[in-house]
Amino acid sequence: MSKKKDDTPNPVIAQNRKAWHDYFIEDKYEAGLALQGWEVKCLRAGRAQLKEGYVVIDNGEAFLVGAHFSPLTSTSTHIKANPVRSRKLLLHRLELNKLIGATERKGYTLIPLRLYWKRGNAKLEVGLARGKQAHDKRADIKKRESDLEMRRALKNR
Length: 157
What we know:
By secondary structure, the chain is α+β, with helices and mostly antiparallel strands. The protein has a single domain, classed as Small Protein B, Chain: A. It has four helices and nine strands, in the order βαβαβββββαββα. The chain is globular, with a radius of gyration of 19 Å. The N and C termini lie far apart (52 Å). InterPro entries: SmpB, SsrA-bd_prot. Belongs to the SmpB family. One of its GO terms (biological process) is trans-translation.
């Protein structure tokens, strides 16, 4: 028997589009999330926001801080939901060591890029990023506008 490979893309729960504007993304890592039951229900409903989130490494462990998971009103009543609590990221030890070295020595930042489902598990794509300065952002906008004009000219030709 052969295993059937799933060609459908992973359903994205939330994206951090602002990260691509504010940072140069050097490398990407896939991390699992240690979640509570009400948080999984929120993700299934698509009520997550990564815009204000960032990743912190503390005592050799990675944590997602500042991401907002809006609790549903129908979730369990005996638990007080904290929508912006720190959530532990599940990474391999070698990946953690690389990230620790890059953030401490080289001055990189860890940014959550997107949150998606993979085989029924919530995964977070974490980007190893370097901050952009104002002139870098202006250059990106200028390049995007020139590419758009070029595509329009080719389309109208």
